[in-house]
Amino acid sequence: MRSNYHIPKDSQGRELLYFAGHSLGLQPKTVQRTVDRELNQWARSGVEGHFDAENAWYTYHERMREPLSKLVGSQTHEVAALNSLSVNLNLLLTTFYRPTTKRYKILVEEHLFPSDYYALEQQVKLHGLSAKECIEFIPWPKENKGFSLEIIRDTINTLGESLALILLPGVQYINGQCFPMQELVEAGHKVGSIVGFDLAHAIGNVEMKLHEWQVDFACWCSYKYLNSGPGGPGGIFVHEKHLSKDLTQMAGWWGNDPNGRFTMEKAFVPVSNADRFQMSNPSILALAAHEASLAEFDKTTIQDLRNHAKSLTDLALNGFKNLDINVITPSDWDTRGNQISIEMSNATAVHKALREEGIICDLRDMNILRLAFCPMYNKPEEIALMLDRLETLI
Question: Beta strand pairing status for 362-364 and 368-372?
């Protein structure tokens, strides 16, 4: 599938070794054609493009439901492409964080992504509560290794009936650990908590069954493993058991029943699917890039991608072991995705040197290098070259 993507080149026209798909995925070659199609329709039809017989913008977002549902393991009416990750998280928290005198605590992991914390902190404040009293942290594991399911379960059970919400990553962005989502949902529901996930580093990376696992809600971005472009459309999952309820939620006209959207009635009538969380009409140009990127996933399956990713990451892990490099990503395949994180005392200097050698990865916490081995476009020869350069640098 590599030939379907634009591979960045250096000033001499040589392909870079690109291991940063966990930060920004590469552009599918079909994106320009798909975006040009919408630009041409805009030029040709103006406002009439919203209701074009073959390519209506009015329902354009609906095209994303099926491919997204395959990637997260859901019913098509449980997912929607809309907004951005942080906007969606705030919208979902407004609905699913409903603290009471008895049940008000939120459980997260200690190094959750900052924007997730900002959203949680402000949601707590909106209810007139204190973040210090409401937000509980699962401590970061020793030696940066993976979180223990037993410790998380014990924490959930200890908080018990005070726990209103659990928000954890599908894949942790620093160490690349894939969280045991099904087990966490079961543990959370057992004490009566809502359970949601930030899937920014999980979607397009690991296999999921959100509907079957009874996940309450999830949100994600599309510019990492989904390759939908910088700032690409976010997405949400809301389990169908919630969608028929009279939910407390933020409302916008694109979440209203489309049959009455233009009657201009002064009453919000939510559509009976995840679209009810849409605020406004989406950017068609952004959705066009998203559509093209998702189409690449329809050419394969997440299971096949996982198999290929395993061979790539195993190759990298064996190489790191031979170089005596400290890997902080869990070694068991079921507990990791495509990202491998390595800890080095001189990581900043190594990161700079790798860039100068045409090897693109990224740096976290000044001593952790994160590398993603994406089965869509990375190949074993690139990993061998990267390992050779690393050995020379060391």
Answer: antiparallel
